[in-house]
Here is the input.
Amino acid sequence: MRPNEQSANGHQTGVEAPSQPVDFAFMGSTEWFEFHCELYDVIAELDLAVSTISPGVIRLRNGKSLGLLQLAQHCHLRSRDDWHELIAAHLCIMTAHLHDIVEPFSAFDLRVRLVPDTPDERDTLRALGARPFAEGIVQVLAIDIDDAVRCVPTREIVDIGWDLDEAWASALSQTEMLERPDEIHAIDIGGVEIIHVFGDRPFTASMIGVIDELIGETADIGPEGAIVALPLRHSVLVHPIGEDDVRTAIAGMIPITRQLYKQGPGSVSPHLYWWRNGELHWIPTFFDGTISGVEFYPSDELAAVISERD
Here is the structure.
């Protein structure tokens, strides 16, 4: 039943569109309402076993839930005429993850895909066998299919008879060796240099472990590492820690990262991390939307590195 639908006699026969969570503020109220109208139509057309449509999430009768943030971000950037097909394709793929609808694939097809560790997606992520990657980020196995990237539940790997740990290792190795970004360029922010790594394919952020090799021709990451952000699957921001002002770089990266994550599509994390020897260490941050409202809280070790450059 579409929200706010009316019968011929003018009586309302539907329900109110769910309230709009703050993460969906990129949509205006009219766009939010139309998005839910299309969502209701597609769910009815596909005859999905939906229990409720809550703010930002679909809850299925089997107890699973599907977050709507990524889908809403894609719709926001596409023509209104494309929404029906886009929503239908997304829901078909996502519900396939929760059942036994699979297609043949090789171990060489496996990649690692990064996704945000959000409460609304926990049921789906658990069904996929997601593993922790960094604070606020989990990793899932994925393959390319004809017109999308499909996440592969780890139970499929087990059912095939493959060793699960070897499959994960193979997926990461293939992601880091075979995937390549399309653009790497430097951006000046307040007199400090930020490297932007961009790729059309959705595995760019997954290559963060070898980011020093990827940007090697543009900038060097020394023994103190780099400040990095993974706002989107397609984008990585990097500031190698050198002799310049690390505080200025962090203060500039915080609002940029938050905005890219909020706008999407393909959001991964709104956080900053200290990259060192291929590992990510979370940097807690605060941003109230104003120039002066930017704060960060480094670990004692990172604080010492920053102080040496003040």
